Amino acid sequence: MSAPSVLLVTRHAPYGASLARSALDAALAAAAFDRPPTLLFLGDGVLQLLPGQDASGIGTRSHRRVLDSLPLYGIDTLYVDSQALAGHDLTAADLPPGARPVDDAAIRALLAGHDHILGF
Amino acid sequence: MVLHTVNCPPSHPALGQCLRLLAPGDALLLLGDGVYAALAGSRAAAELAASGAALHVLDVDARAAGVLERLADGVSVCDDEGFVALTERYPRQQAWY
């Protein structure tokens, strides 16, 4: 039996609440057990991807920097809500390497196509 | 097929995201403040009906909110056991809050 696939859906901006950070912690924990999840950035979750973050002034780590380190942990499948990207005037050039913008039909296929969904 | 649970009020952007991604064959359960999207004649109820998803509302929350009295057509009322049954039928779940 192959390992169950996990889709991790992250829908919140990085610093206003702990949800985005918790999503990353969950992703890293799953990867540590050889279950690297697929990540889907939805709605305001795409704001986690803004380049040029410097969180030193608020006493935390740059969220984008942690995101950029995910391939080191075997997490290299990132999907991004293309409608939300456009809504915030972000483009594919702003995204970490390998992150793929997806439309609503593709997002529905991601939701239906994984064995488990973890929502943050 | 995905079970979507919604516990935010209709004006919350999470409901809009849910509506974008609901697919025919999915199920949706309204609970907490989410039950207001089942108000007959409301815009949210019309948009949910157009999604083609199976619509459910949690009985205690809908009753508490006064929504049970004016429930939109096509929305079925479910109790806690029904909620559990939904989670068995739809192993994939996405919570909108």
From TrEMBL, chain A:
Transmembrane annotation, as ranges: none
Pfam family, one: DsrE
SUPFAM superfamilies: DsrEFH-like (SSF75169)
InterPro entries, per database record: DsrEFH-like, Sulphur_relay_DsrE/F-like, Sulphur_relay_TusC/DsrF
Signal peptide: none
Superkingdom assignment: Bacteria
Family statement: Belongs to the DsrF/TusC family.
Stored NCBIfam families: PRK00211.1 (NF001238), sulf_tusC_dsrF (TIGR03010)
Protein name: Sulfurtransferase complex subunit TusC
UniProtKB/TrEMBL annotation, chain B:
One Pfam family from the record: DsrH
Gene Ontology BP terms: tRNA wobble position uridine thiolation
Gene designation per UniProt: tusB
Superkingdom per UniProt: Bacteria
Protein known as: Sulfurtransferase complex subunit TusB
UniProt GO cellular component terms: sulfurtransferase complex
InterPro entries, alphabetized: DsrEFH-like, Sulphur_relay_TusB/DsrH
SUPFAM superfamilies to which the protein is assigned, alphabetical: DsrEFH-like
Listed NCBIfam families: sulf_tusB_dsrH
Signal peptide: none
